[in-house]
Amino acid sequence: MNKKNLFALAIALTVIVISAEPVMAYTLLSPRRTWASTPITVRVYTGGNSTINDGDGGVTAVVGAIKAWGIISSSSTTQNAVRGSAPATIVLNNNGKVCTGSCLAATLTGYYTGSTIYDADVYTNTRYSYTSSRETDGCSGEYDIDGIMTHEVGHVIGLGHSSVSGATMYPSVSSCNYNNRTLEADDVAGKNDLY
Ligand SMILES: [Zn+2]
């Protein structure tokens, strides 16, 4: 099974640290930072992914999936992502020129002032095929968009990667693996550390 990276910009150093300390659990983005208040507004751009056969290219599925964090106010939007301006926006049909190679999806985590996040947009690598919780034609070599975007929203709220295998914030996922849709104790601990 192919393993692809769930890549977040600006946290490459965190990944290196995890490799050296395999017993660590969740990490926070560095410097530590949070949105000013919750719930955090995250929008899903209505330009869906053409590989997802669920009626709207995964948009409705992702709007629902990211609520798993419990502190997200989500809905779809016809407004494409605007880098540096809220709301945080998930784009399913464009790699944003930041998510290529083995990257499945990437979150731009560089928009913060001091310890306050003011934007974080998410892009998707269109070279791969995806499935969703609303797709009914099975899975073969596809990656679960619900789980991938639950992972990326972890970056949106201020989390880095976890070394706990099976945690949603673990940095890679296999095709047809749906485990990232549900948060593990380690993911919840990271969220509760921040909010
Ligand atoms: Zn990641």
Describe the protein:
With 195 residues, the protein is of the alpha/beta class. It has one domain (27-194): Collagenase (Catalytic Domain), CATH 3.40.390.10. 20% of the residues lie in helices and 22% in strands. It has helices spanning 12-20, 59-65, 145-157, 185-194, and strands spanning 3-8, 34-35, 40-45, 72-77, 88-90, 103-107, 112-113, 116-117, 122-124, 130-131, 143-144, 172-174. It has a 4-stranded mixed β-sheet with strand order 9-6-1-12, covered by helices on one side. Helix 2 crosses helix 3 (145-157). The longest helix is centred in the C-terminal third of the chain and has 13 residues, at 145-157. The termini are far apart. The site of zinc ion (ZN) has 6 residues, from strand 1 and helix 3.
Low-pLDDT residue intervals, each spanning 5 or more residues: 10-23
Biggest sheet overview = 4 strands, mixed
CATH topology name, in short, is: Collagenase (Catalytic Domain)
Which shape, going by the Cα principal axes?
Answer: globular
Count of individual beta strands: 12
| Integer tally of domains | 1
Task: Round the mean pLDDT to the nearest integer and report it.
Answer: 91
- Name the CATH class: Alpha Beta
Q: What ligands can be seen in this structure?
A: zinc ion
